[in-house]
Amino acid sequence: MDRTVDARGLVCPQPVIKAKKAMKDMTEGILTILVDNEIAVQNVMKLGNYSGVNPSSTKLSDKEYQILFYMEKGAESVQKNTLEECAPDSRKKGLVAVLSSDQMGTGSEELGRILMKGFVYALTQLEELPETILLYNGGARLSTQGSSSLEDLKSLEAQGVEILTCGTCLNFYELTEKLSVGTVTNMYEIAEKMAGARLVIRP
């Protein structure tokens, strides 16, 4: 029996989780998954390929994509967990990006914020993504509610990039409850990550 899963408006890993759950309830038929961004398309397609259901995708409009899973008896079971399905192997081992401000450069604060937003977006487009992104001092604002870089950081996290924000900094700026991507870290781990990095990039 055919089935449709509407995952529009959801960020990874939610579309993958919803598709995976629907697959468990189906033995035959066509499973249609609707999403609204290309990252979700890539991750759901990857789930379909792992599962042996001959997935195909179609762009219906600027913000609507359709993915079809052709369910058949005996299809290969899913071997990867959800986080692995959302983490394409495109990270560069030992590459750490350090964001210590929500602005890039000095001079105009407004321009600095525009440049930082562009830099974080540029990270999402690299052929080799950072393994870890460290955010501290003013950079802690980037991973919190209301940040213009939040969706780009979520996209990076969905692809397996570790996002770590300084807990002391969140407390100082009274943003602890507004952290919206990644996890809280401490200065020891920040020092450890930087000391163990093969390459550290700073905007």
Automatic annotation (TrEMBL):
Domain of life: Bacteria
PROSITE patterns the UniProt entry points to: UPF0033
Family annotation (InterPro entries): DsrEFH-like, Se_metab_YedF, TusA-like, TusA-like_sf
CDD domains cross-referenced by the UniProt entry: SirA_like_N
Cited Gene3D superfamilies: TusA-like domain
Domain UPF0033: 5-29
Family the entry assigns: Belongs to the sulfur carrier protein TusA family.
Protein name per UniProt: Sulfurtransferase-like selenium metabolism protein YedF
Organism, as annotated: Lacrimispora defluvii
Gene this protein is translated from: yedF
